[in-house]
Write a sequence for this structure.
């Protein structure tokens, strides 16, 4: 398997990105192509021992930053590390792409360059998160800020195929993120989506309130991209704030410091459990290629884990399954272009 | 000051409600009227020592449950504890109402019976939450699942008046909850609302990403009721799950149990800080009366604190300030009915 990694995407690029590639190559035995200014990437690679046959560079002279308008940047910066990486996937020279750069540019680039799977209205970002009782997926976590009800049924179908194959859960439960448990609760979108989801060939368990999301009792959580991104960022933000506040409190007295030392293994396990870096990147489902968005602040370990996500995606053959699922169903789905 | 409390609202009614009323009467010296079946409320009151001149009962034979359609329930159950309570505020026989019952029925009842302040399009639920650097308000936290951009500017204005007077923060900062920091990010609603908020006479600091909400750096967070309710419930859910998981981990070994004992004061302070019960109820702003929604699972302490919120609301004269703020501004506001 060949993975192309956007060498200049992310807050810690290119150092952490290159280091993550070296780690992933060793651990998973994949071939890796890094895009970016050849001399910069080479200088980073020179800091590590690595397999020169398995990690190569494709020169790219431009960088797309997070504050650029995505579509414009994609069109004017053809020689950017991102566009070059996407081109390799489009042309079949790489089996997957991983980027920690601008989310907007990455998602727009995947849709415009790698293109959608036939039958899919809107591709969706689908991170898998740690829950108390097991991992859960949020789909869409930010690709489509405004959604029509039909998009949500496709998100549910894509989430089902991915969760079933990648996480090995047969007939995963699907819930609609909503502000009430009852069928008639919510906004215009969720009320309409509920009626459509009921009719789909999925294990639909109804509405799930945000309060219950961290429990991880439902496998696939369907929502529009605005709500999904809010859920994702609240999850990260609240966990981070609580853990940092506990740390501050522990440092407050001698006795609590000792208590903190005794609890070090607890906090370590805990931090690891809630650390997005352990979970790697989020798959962008619905495009005709394996496209993984790593967290913007990815360190080497997070980037390595994002490459792992691309490998599992590849090894389980989910992309082909996704294509055939929508090829068969396209006549019954209400496609809205 | 006279507060009427819906004696039959909430998961723990009437026991916890009545106990909370007794506690609040003692601590704040307010007069309290409890609505509900006279004999039931009397039986609960008999369990406590209380000032019989300061706590009275208004008999109400019906109860509105959380799974009833709000408007229909309000219209058919005129003799319910909720409708009777709202009638007392409407008729000026009580200065404030507190209910831990059905949120939908309470909000609809406040709007239909107590009525809106002149100039307000949509009243909004505005809980004040604990943040790392201080409390913050979410407005709207669930009253309006679908919003127009103009509603959000009114939420901002109402939030400003309340925060300024009740929390004593001069010219509080106002942020728009959004999934990106930049002006052009978000969905159709937030993009349009951003442009309107820029023009308002408020201390608008732009978009705030959900990840930064728990830090409490922005005083008033404006959003539609669906997003606000999601933020509120994620906050509660993630905090609850993390604290319960840490507890489980601590019980895992002898050493960590000792660590846990040494950290007891830390966890206690911490739990108190994140406990919604400490923060009492959420004010429903924009209606022509002091209407406080207590958490559905309120215990006696939470109910007592909700009564405290109503007292501060009353003592600071915010309702009159709110009315005059909108009376003056009504010509410039784009009212949408």
């Amino acid at each position: 398997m060949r993975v192309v990694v956007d060498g200049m995407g992310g807050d810690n690029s290119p150092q952490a990105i290159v280091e993550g590639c070296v780690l992933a190559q060793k651990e998973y035995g994949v071939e890796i192509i890094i895009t970016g200014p050849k001399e910069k990437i080479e200088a980073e690679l020179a800091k590590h021992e690595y397999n020169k046959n398995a990690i190569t560079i494709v020169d790219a002279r431009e960088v797309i930053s997070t504050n650029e308008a995505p579509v414009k940047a994609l069109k004017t910066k053809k020689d950017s590390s991102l566009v070059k990486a996407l081109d390799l996937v489009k042309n079949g020279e790489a089996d997957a792409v991983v980027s920690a750069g601008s989310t907007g540019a990455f998602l727009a680039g995947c849709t415009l360059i790698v293109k959608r799977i036939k039958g899919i209205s809107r591709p969706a970002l689908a991170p898998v998160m740690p829950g108390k009782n097991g991992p859960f997926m949020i789909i869409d976590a930010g690709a489509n800020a405004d959604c029509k009800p039909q998009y949500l049924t496709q998100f549910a179908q894509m989430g089902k195929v991915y969760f079933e194959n990648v996480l090995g859960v047969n007939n995963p439960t699907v819930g609609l993120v909503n502000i009430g448990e009852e069928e008639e609760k919510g906004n215009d979108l969720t009320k309409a989506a509920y009626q459509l989801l009921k009719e789909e060939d999925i294990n639909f368990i109804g509405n799930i309130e945000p309060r219950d999301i961290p429990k991880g009792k439902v496998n696939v959580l369907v929502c529009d991209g605005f709500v999904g991104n809010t859920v994702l960022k609240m999850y990260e933000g609240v966990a981070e704030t609580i853990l940092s506040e506990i740390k501050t409190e522990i440092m407050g007295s001698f006795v609590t410091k000792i208590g903190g030392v005794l609890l070090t293994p607890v906090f370590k396990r805990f931090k690891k459990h809630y650390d997005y870096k352990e979970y790697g990147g989020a798959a962008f489902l619905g495009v005709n290629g394996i496209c993984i968005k790593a967290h913007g602040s990815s360190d080497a370990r997070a980037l390595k884990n994002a490459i792992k996500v691309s490998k599992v995606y590849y090894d389980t053959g989910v992309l082909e399954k996704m294509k055939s699922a929508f090829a068969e169903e396209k006549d019954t789905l209400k496609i809205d272009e």
User: Anything to note?
Assistant: The longest strand of chain A covers residues 31-36. Chain A touches chain B through 61 residues (CB under 8 Å). The CA atoms of residues 138 and 156 of chain A lie 10 Å apart. Chain A is about 45% helix and 15% strand.
